[in-house]
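Need tokens for this chain, all 170 residues.
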Amino acid sequence: MNSRDHLMEIYKKFQTSEDLLRLLYYYPTDNNGNYSNPLSQDKQNILDMSPLEKLNIIKDRIRFTKSIDGMGTDENHICRIIFYAGRRSVTSNRLTMNQDINFDIIVHREFNDNDMRLEWIKDVVDKILVYEDYSSFGEVKQLSGKEISGLPEGYIGYQLTYNFGDLIDK
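Here are the structure tokens for all 170 residues:
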């Protein structure tokens, strides 16, 4: 099975999306407490940062394992996407499968209260998943979404589930 390859293809799209990285990384206010748009041209492009700095941001904000490490502390308010395989089903073609993939989007209320960051990230994730081209997927469609409970105080989350049809299973 090529489950890892399928997830890595999505991961590569996420880690090269400047908009997504900015939404996950940049705080919603400046040092004076004024709103600061994470997509502003005044902010440094994350993809242009040093390789180590960029890698550290990506490793902290995009994960494959359900983990809230580093999210419960008062001084480290962040946004994170965690994605992982869900239900898998057979198709009429023995060489392909349908795969559900869950995307948990978690944001601190400081981000969400300032610019509805959770909704913003959901929109960008949807664009990446539905409108980008993938070499090993057929049709991609959103199946469901639901609130995530049990997060550290101050965090909210939403789980999106997408179905990736006709995964080539060679």
